[in-house]
Amino acid sequence: MSDKRENYISWDEYFMGVAMLSGMRSKDPSTQVGCCIVSPENKILSMGYNGLPRGCSDDEFPWAREGEDPLETKYVYTVHSELNAILNYSGGSLAGSKLYVSLFPCNECCKAIIQSGIVEVIFDSDKYADEPSTIASKKMMDAAGVRYYQYHRSNRQITIRV
Ligand SMILES: O=c1[nH]c(=O)n([C@H]2C[C@H](O)[C@@H](COP(=O)(O)O)O2)cc1CO
Ligand SMILES: [Zn+2]
């Protein structure tokens, strides 16, 4: 009989947990998104969260969702978690990898996901499922043969004291 510990976290809990932990770095007051890219051998290749490009101050650029002028909203400035994770990777090719993300990718991230050769997307929330950008993403992933499925929450509470 082995003495192996049994209640260790699964690969899916680990990678989605890492994605969610990464999202906790986000300064966006309404939606924090985190992403974790994983190789076919289950090695973590990259991580990202939604934020401003390097050099653009979190304290000077707007975080508003609405404004008379689009330049006063966050939408024109933020880099999405998935794009950040793709751009953060400096190890070569992401072909064949899997992407864990806490929110279904928008159409722009979807284009980058497809073009970088990522073959599987595991998402948690799909709260913008009815938006054209999400519908477009699903159309493109279907056409490109990128598999996507919703993460099955285990509801395990993971507590880290830091
Ligand atoms: O796939 C995504 N990845 C991602 O990082 N985001 C970011 C952009 C924004 O900072 C935030 C969405 O803001 P809001 O829910 O307030 O519209 O989430 C949004 C999406 C989907 O729209
Ligand atoms: Zn996006």
TrEMBL record:
<dbReference type="InterPro" id="IPR015517">
    <property type="entry name" value="dCMP_deaminase-rel"/>
</dbReference>
<dbReference type="GO" id="GO:0004132">
    <property type="term" value="F:dCMP deaminase activity"/>
</dbReference>
<comment type="similarity">
    <text>Belongs to the cytidine and deoxycytidylate deaminase family.</text>
</comment>
<dbReference type="Pfam" id="PF00383">
    <property type="entry name" value="dCMP_cyt_deam_1"/>
</dbReference>
<dbReference type="GO" id="GO:0005737">
    <property type="term" value="C:cytoplasm"/>
</dbReference>
<dbReference type="InterPro" id="IPR016193">
    <property type="entry name" value="Cytidine_deaminase-like"/>
</dbReference>
<dbReference type="InterPro" id="IPR035105">
    <property type="entry name" value="Deoxycytidylate_deaminase_dom"/>
</dbReference>
<dbReference type="GO" id="GO:0008270">
    <property type="term" value="F:zinc ion binding"/>
</dbReference>
<feature type="active site" description="Proton donor">
    <location>
        <position position="82"/>
    </location>
</feature>
<keyword id="KW-0862">Zinc</keyword>
<feature type="domain" description="CMP/dCMP-type deaminase">
    <location>
        <begin position="10"/>
        <end position="138"/>
    </location>
</feature>
<feature type="binding site">
    <location>
        <position position="80"/>
    </location>
    <ligand>
        <name>Zn(2+)</name>
    </ligand>
</feature>
<keyword id="KW-0479">Metal-binding</keyword>
<dbReference type="GO" id="GO:0006220">
    <property type="term" value="P:pyrimidine nucleotide metabolic process"/>
</dbReference>
<protein>
    <submittedName>
        <fullName>dCMP deaminase</fullName>
    </submittedName>
</protein>
<dbReference type="InterPro" id="IPR016473">
    <property type="entry name" value="dCMP_deaminase"/>
</dbReference>
<keyword id="KW-0545">Nucleotide biosynthesis</keyword>
<keyword id="KW-0378">Hydrolase</keyword>
<feature type="binding site">
    <location>
        <position position="106"/>
    </location>
    <ligand>
        <name>Zn(2+)</name>
    </ligand>
</feature>
<feature type="binding site">
    <location>
        <position position="109"/>
    </location>
    <ligand>
        <name>Zn(2+)</name>
    </ligand>
</feature>
<dbReference type="GO" id="GO:0009165">
    <property type="term" value="P:nucleotide biosynthetic process"/>
</dbReference>
<dbReference type="InterPro" id="IPR002125">
    <property type="entry name" value="CMP_dCMP_dom"/>
</dbReference>
